[in-house]
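[[Local backbone shapes]]
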Amino acid sequence: QPCRATHSLCIQNFHVVQLNVGGHLYTTTLSTLRKHSDSKLAEIFSGPPKLRTDTQGCYFIDRDGSHFGAILEFLRSEQLPKENIQEVHKEAIHYNIKPLIKLLEETPRLFGELVGRQQFLSRVPHYKENIEVLIRIARAEAIAARHSYIIICVLRTEEDLGFYDNAINSLEAAKESVVTFGPWKAAPLVKDLLDCVKMDIENQGYRVSIQPHAVEKSFLSRSYDYFYQLTFTWW
């Protein structure tokens, strides 16, 4: 049935509103949309109309509406989603629904991400910049190749950092293309850092693997286990 949304929003809260959120159709009431007065939805649906309507008369929100149903369900019943927690959290931030944001950030998955992993990564110098550099190098080396290979150096402690010059000189690979992480003052180990690197690159749609990079050494030279080979697979 065609939507029949009125063009005047100065009406009773129980009035039914038809929404088109990025092509996803939803039906709700003004009271639901206005439930949290400081939210973006309450702002939009208070006073004169602030949205255009589509060809069927539905109020149109130009945003992906895949998870808007979870937003509406919380506004109706305060029920939290059981899946797509991170995606719904992103929408809650966009619509500035503070109670939902707070409750989602207390769920085990987001709590672990925000309080555990992200707090750890904030203690790793230049972590985000290094991820961008890795992707940029890999893409530059992808021409006519199935794989891109990058050497990363992980220095867990200040003591490891003291051996950096000797370790980097032991490499036969191009030293200027080595990307270095650390040191950091937090409990997670080198393996945890490598898991984060893999996760954050794969979350951007790439296929990667990480293996220890063996460094050839002479009889009297020290062995350094700081190096790992990051492999991007393109096809």
Observations:
- The CA atoms of residues 74 and 141 lie 47 Å apart.
- Strands lie at 16-21, 24-29, 59-61, 147-154, 179-181, 207-212, 227-233.
